Amino acid sequence: MENFKKQFYKGVLELGILKLLYEKDHYGYSLMSEIKERSEHKLQVKDGTLYPILYRLEDQKLIENYWETSETGRGKPRKYYRITENGKERYLQMLSDFHEVNKGIMSIIES
Amino acid sequence: MNEKYIKEVMKYINVSRKNKKRIKEDLEQRLQDALFDNPYFNPYTDLGAPKEYAEEFMDNIEESHIFIQSSTGKPYEYISARSLFGLPVVHINTGGSNRRPRTAKGIIAIGDIAQGFVAIGGISFGLVSLGGISFGLVSIGGIAFGLAAIGGVSIGLVAVGGIAYALSHAFGGIMNILK
C-alpha cells in the first residue's frame, strides 16, 4: 500500500508541479510551500522528492532555471524554475490524460 | 550550521557531477530560504539527519550516470551516459573480491575484469588491452597475449618482454620463436 501511494504520489506530483509553474515561476522552497498550502496541508513534499522531479523535468526540457535577485526578498540571488513551451504542451496533455484515467478508474470503483 | 549540514549531506550523495552540483546549489538555497522564513530553523531537526536526507534524494534521482559505492568505499561503478554499438563509452567497475571480481564492459572498460575496445584491468580483453593478464590485438601486461604483446611474459605474433614467445619476432631477456 505504501509503495502504491509513493508511486502514485510521484506521478501526480509531477502534474502538480507543472501546473504551479504554468501559473508562475517558482523557486524550490516556494514550490514546497505552495504545494502544502494549495493542497490544504494534505500534501507535504520532501526535498528529496521535489528536487529530483525538478531535475527530471529540466532534463526533459519541460522546465528551465534562471537566477534572479528579488528586491523584496533576502537580497541574494535565487534559482527560479519556469515552464517552457514544451512543458506547457506536456502539462495540458498530462492533465487530459489524468482526467481520462481518473474518470475511468472512478467508474470502476463506483460501479 | 548550514554549511556543516550541506557538507554532511553531500558526503552521502553519489551521483553524477552535474546532479551533485544541482543538489548542492538547491540545498544551499533551500536552507537560506528556510532560515529567512524561520530564524529558528535547524536543518538537523527540521529536515532530519543528513544521511536520511541524502538517501531520499538517492532513492528518487534518475540518471544515466550511476555511481555505486559501498560504505567501505571499495566497490565502484561508473557507466557513462553515452553509448556506442550498444556499449557504454566508458564503464568502470572495480573493487570486487577475488571470489567475485567485477566485470566492466564498454568501449573503454576498466575493471577487475575488463572487456572492451580499450580494456584495462586485472584480466583484460580488448583491441588494446592493458592488464595483469591481458589478451588483445595490442596487449600490454604482466602476462600478455596478442598480435603485438608486451609484458613480463609475452606471447604473440610479435612479442616483447622478459620472456617473449613469438611467431614472428621476439625481443626480450629470454626469447623464442614458436614454429
What is the gist of this entry?
The complex is a heterodimer of chains A (111) and B (179). Chain A is an alpha+beta fold and 111 residues long.
Cross-sheet strand order for the largest sheet of chain B: 1-2-5-6
What kind of sheet is the major sheet of chain B?
4 strands, mixed
Beta fraction of the residues of chain A?
5-15%
- What pair of chains forms the biggest interface? A-B, 20 and 24 residues
Low-confidence stretches of chain B: 64-73
What does it look like?
The complex is a heterodimer of chains A (111) and B (179). Chain A has 111 residues and is of the alpha+beta class. Chain A contains four helices and three strands. In chain A, a hairpin with a 7-residue loop joins strand 2 and strand 3. The radius of gyration of chain A is 15 Å and the shape is globular. By secondary structure, chain B is an alpha+beta fold. Chain B has helices at residues 2-11, 17-37, 43-46, 50-60; strands at 67-69, 76-79, 83-84, 87-88, 90-94, 103-177. In chain B, the strands form two sheets. In chain B, strands 1-2-5-6 form a four-stranded mixed β-sheet, with no helix packed on it. A two-stranded antiparallel ribbon of chain B has the order 3-4. In chain B, helix 1 (2-11) runs antiparallel to helix 2 (17-37) and helix 1 (2-11) crosses helix 4 (50-60). The longest helix of chain B is centred in the N-terminal third of the chain and has 21 residues, at 17-37. The model of chain B is unreliable at 64-73 (pLDDT under 50). Classes of the chains: A alpha+beta (111), B alpha+beta (179).
